[in-house]
């Protein structure tokens, strides 16, 4: 199975540098254009099924990326972003001032990140692994013909899953390449569930958007 992992387009909270987590933000005009451009790039691919985080920003992204296909979209809460509790909705700069150690851990030492009431990155990674395993098992059970599945999700969740596939320690979660908005990664999963990355965070060439 080819698993195509897509991060959502730019949101208003991305622009504001505001913590999103599982709270609801929405795509900007640029985010919509990014998703449409990615849709043009993927138009030659036939997907058996599309899975999408139930968050608004990912649903909007999927609507634009797959606007020209009638492939079924399945919405899953388990594909939502890391839950960040009382951080959500706040500016990253404000958090850096109020909780400097936790802010530093989030971006520089993710294996140490702990905030009361929030998920840590190990919990996020396990949620991603379990969800992909269920998707893979269902794909084999239904014997789809195209052997291609798309997942529209979030930057930290996708990075955490790819970190697992590469066998990297959690302290390397944010290692390059950066997971840009509408970045497109591809993982090949074999019959034995062994997985390897064949494309990491590819994105459309930069354009001038009006």
Low-confidence stretches: none
CATH-derived topology? Rossmann fold
Strand content: 15-25%
Major β-sheet, in short?
A: 6 strands, mixed
Number of DSSP strand runs: 6
Order of helices and strands: EHHEHEHHHEHEE
CATH homologous superfamily descriptor:
Phosphoglycerate mutase-like
Which oligomeric form is depicted? single chain
What's the CATH class, please? Answer: Alpha Beta
Strand order in the largest sheet: 3-2-4-1-5-6
Shape verdict: globular
For the CA atoms, what is the radius of gyration?
17 Å
Q: What count of structural domains?
A: 1
- What is the CA-CA span between the terminal residues? 38 Å
Approximately how much helix is present in the residues? 25-40%
Assign the structural class, choosing from mainly alpha, mainly beta, alpha/beta, alpha+beta, or little secondary structure. Answer: alpha/beta
The number of helical segments is 7
Kindly report the average pLDDT value: 95
Named CATH architecture: 3-Layer(aba) Sandwich
